[in-house]
Amino acid sequence: MSSVTVSVATAHNQLSRLISRAEGGDDVVISRRGKPVARLRPVSESSVWTVA
Questions:
Q1: 3-42, what's its fold?
Q2: Residue 42: helix, strand or coil by DSSP?
Q3: Tens digit of pLDDT for each residue in 8-47?
Q4: How far is CA 17 from the centre of its chain?
């Protein structure tokens, strides 16, 4: 596992790739102007939400 921090613009352009990295166990942090604002991580089976 590794950690990567990307800008919002990069995340927008590479979202599929970043999701694949998160699924593989990487910690993906999205930053805006150098400040972390979001994190991508895998969803565990026990925490899956259903939206109707």
A1: YefM-like fold (3.40.1620)
A2: coil
A3: 999 999 999 999 999 998 999 999 999 999 999 888 755 6
A4: 10
